[in-house]
Amino acid sequence: MKVTVSGASGLIGAALARSLRADGHEVRRLVRREPSAPDEVRWTPGEHVDPAAVDGVDAVVHLAGAGIGDRPWTSARKREIYASRVSGTRTIAEAVARAAAPPRVLVSGSAIGYYGATGDRAADEGAPRGTGFLADLVADWEDAAAPAAGAGVRVVLPRTGIVLDRSGGLLGKVLPLFRLGLGARLGDGRQWTSWITLADEVAALRFLLDNDVSGPVNLTAPHPVRNADYTREVGRALGRPAKLAVPAFVLRAALRDFADEGPLISQKVVPARLEEAGFAFAHPELPDALRAVLRRD
Description:
Elements: E1 2-6, H1 11-22, E2 26-31, E3 40-44, E4 48-49, E5 59-62, H2 75-98, E6 105-108, E7 110-111, E8 122-123, H3 133-143, H4 146-150, E9 154-160, E10 162-164, H5 169-179, E11 184-186, E12 192-193, E13 195-197, H6 198-210, E14 215-219, E15 225-226, H7 227-238, E16 244-246, H8 248-255, H9 258-261, E17 268-269, H10 272-276, H11 286-293
């Protein structure tokens, strides 16, 4: 199988490319600079994709975009996030639609931010769109993939939760603090956290490449947890206390608008369509997941 991957230098994209290559598949990586390796193809999000990137491949996995939670949300940062996600997706989708030999599937990354704050209500793919910047962003981001679907290509929109891995993402950033015994719940800790291990994220993306599923699919483990429980389990997995708390006002001061749509939001999201399609999670429960992710500690 030939697969084109954007965002292949990121946490998820790099792991997906490694997994595909390990099984003998050919991977083309989209890069925003002059290509320096035979497997690289240049593209300019919002403007142009080299036709060689999508013509004649079996699948395209689009994961590129500015980080959503790695900087405070200033007005300028919100514009950058929006443009990178929406314009980039439209560029890919239009290239797929124009291809002489289009891929059979476009997997275009999305996020559980679509649901906004769900409180204690479990949200599957049939749950309504929420409110806020992320909900609006995800709706437009997913709509941007429409040209590919209009051309008859199967389009999958994986709405990913918090991806757990020791090498990056949210967990990777806070592990040094947890190892020092400075792990802390966020706010009152009652908000639901919807998570998935990197291994299950990659396995789910590959499952979606091979199985006849289209539209939104939640990529979260089947058992979300409250933030306080998440914090306690990370500390337990590391053998360190995790009894501190970061007050909500501190998070809001540091992260601005992102605080209430990121660390403080309650999102209880479940992977109904993924499980109905027959996907089996390697790590459905958080304690086992953390032991697997942190097994070398």
